[in-house]
């Protein structure tokens, strides 16, 4: 189906993707149309094997090669200068492209069988909560999607970490989006990297827009000064079981043990469940910004910015 220019929903270790032939501009345009995604927001291209990267990019710096050897296949995307074969619609007209080799056997098998790289954002309407099961994808798109491959829930649960080698004038690696590979693990391999702290006028990778990953229900990140309206139906999204459970109409605990990796796996599904029950607001408790907690807080802040 990918070779025929059709779209396929498929699992990865991070979230479910909405895939099209990355070398077919018409097919990629259909991804933007189905998602209602603005064309200034570039896509990530997925490859079946790390050796396929050189077909899509012009140069691979030594630090990028080190990351590939350590983390691919896996939840890490690298932004590098693109080859001319990559259509401008994939990169939003930028001279660079984000590429990753997913750490999911079904995803890599799909790419290999298609015989082409697959451009794939998350399989949901633009700006909304990412899907971590095939059912989430079906709920979003119904019969407007040709096929949805189902391999159960995603085992990482948040999108890939995005590292750019084109942002910094000195060629230093730059973190554009925290994700499934913790920043600490990356810096342990290649040393300190720059962090993109500003909101770009033009995104150079997915996940950089201020508002993203958002439920329909307003989401607020709690702090010590948060006050509650007693007449509101509130839901709580928290790491561990709270002591003030009676204050909420519904509670989603991300990890009874406080494990941030388990919390990441459960994050989007928990947000979806709270969003589906007619609450007035969702209160999200902050988590420590270490390991995958950095990615969790990135998603919560963008969800709260709606």
Automatic annotation (TrEMBL):
Domain YrdC-like: 1-181
InterPro entries: DHBP_synth_RibB-like_a/b_dom, Sua5-like_dom, Sua5/YwlC_C, Sua5_C, T(6)A37_SUA5, TC-AMP_synthase_SUA5
GO biological process: regulation of translational fidelity; tRNA processing
Binding site for ATP: 37, 130, 177, 213
Top-level enzyme category: transferase
Annotated catalysed reactions: L-threonine + hydrogencarbonate + ATP = L-threonylcarbamoyladenylate + diphosphate + H2O
GO cellular component, one term: cytoplasm
Keyword annotations: ATP-binding, Cytoplasm, Nucleotide-binding, Nucleotidyltransferase, Transferase, tRNA processing
Localization of this protein: Cytoplasm
GO molecular function: ATP binding; double-stranded RNA binding; L-threonylcarbamoyladenylate synthase; tRNA binding
Pfam family, one: Sua5_yciO_yrdC
EC number annotated for this UniProt entry: 2.7.7.87
Binding site residues for L-threonine: 14, 46, 100, 120, 122, 160
Top-level division of the source organism's lineage: Bacteria
Keyword Heme: no
Keyword Cytoplasm: yes
Xref: NCBIfam families: L-threonylcarbamoyladenylate synthase
Family of the protein in this entry: Belongs to the SUA5 family.
Biological role: Required for the formation of a threonylcarbamoyl group on adenosine at position 37 (t(6)A37) in tRNAs that read codons beginning with adenine.
Protein name: Threonylcarbamoyl-AMP synthase
Organism name: Stieleria varia
Top-level taxonomy: Bacteria, Pseudomonadati, Planctomycetota, Planctomycetia, Pirellulales
Gene coding for it: ywlC
